[in-house]
Amino acid sequence: MDMKSAVSPKIKGLMEAISAGDCKAIDGFWKAVEENGTPIVEEIPGDSEHVLVTVVWKDAGDIETIAVFGEMFGMNTDEEKLEKLLDTNLWYKTYKLPANGRSLYVFFINEQPGAELADIEHKLDPFNPHIVTCVDDEENPGDYCILFKQESMIELPKFKNNPYVQEKAEAAKGSIEQLRFGSKILDKSKRIWLYKPANYDELQQPYGLAIFMDGFEYLYETKAAVVLDNMIAEGVIPPMAAVFVDNRDNRIEELRLNTVFIDFLAKELVPWAKEKCKISDDSQHTLVGGFSAGGVTAAYAALLYPEVFGKVLSQSGAFYWGYNDDMTGSVVVDKYEQAGRQPIDIYMALGEFEKFDHHLNAANRLYKILTEKGYGVKYEEFMGGHTSFDCQITLAEGLEFLLGK
Length: 405
Prior knowledge:
This protein is an alpha/beta fold and 405 residues long. 28% of the residues lie in helices and 26% in strands. It has helices at 9-19, 25-36, 215-220, 224-233, 251-255, 259-276, 293-304, 331-338, 357-373, 391-403; strands at 40-44, 47-58, 66-69, 83-84, 90-98, 102-109, 121-123, 131-133, 150-155, 175-183, 188-196, 208-212, 240-245, 286-291, 311-315, 345-351, 376-382.
């Protein structure tokens, strides 16, 4: 994908007007920005698949450097610095981007070389009313689903989100109960949320079960319970229960190929759920899912316990983690290659803005192995990035592939 800077006709026209002596041109530009909002999106003649996107900043006299920071634009602020237009108060940068993209972003103001993220002044786009705000977590204050509590958001003209992610008045709502689960295996208590589908007590057949890691993020950022409500209401997937496991207290240790944590899922949490709810004993009705570290842990859990987990939802799974100090080496991919085919179906998704080499290579290698061994597998590359917010985009497709009627 071409992420290189491009030329905006609007900026070019403004520059020409100012150079020709039109002293009111910049005021007219800012008036249009205030009325229409930002970023500025322009069509490209003859190219329906891309658009020009220009981020702008109005200098109040305090800007030495300013950079845009977001997965669609770029995460290296040395390369994403805005340029000042002549001797005006306009800073800008134009990109050629896929017309179906979406991204969160902020501006970094006067970043100093070598500065830590927490020390960099960041601001929202003041002309963009679309803001994503993370839900506050009373148990983990300051631990946000994305980098900051709030980020600006842009959805380009052809972006299509998961149609089930918005609450629908006509869809019956399931119940969510927050609990503390005392684990002997982990020697600690874990915060969990138990989801039961609407009309739970009226249905007689045993339910399927989904276990989600990063439970807080899946509930509040990915909107997984809303997606379940809507998909169940429309009959796309059968009624099912779900347990959302919180990993905010010790995420990296628990989800970094940790077999003790996987033992907890298979030997304690699933049996507890079966005692608490009417859950099927068939592993083909039990899903384990997660994002990034949770995505690779889900695949590992099913390989270690295929008699428990027959369905794997891996969103942006970090399959490059492994043997080396930098966590490359693809240990779970190797284990799938070495093992015989197990009764597991797997859904994998990887975003266009997270396709760095070892991430992409590990995902492609695992997909090839699974295909050659005859697994039920679907692998999708979607127009998004590496956040729990982006998991909204493919969650419904993954659930329908794994659980759909």
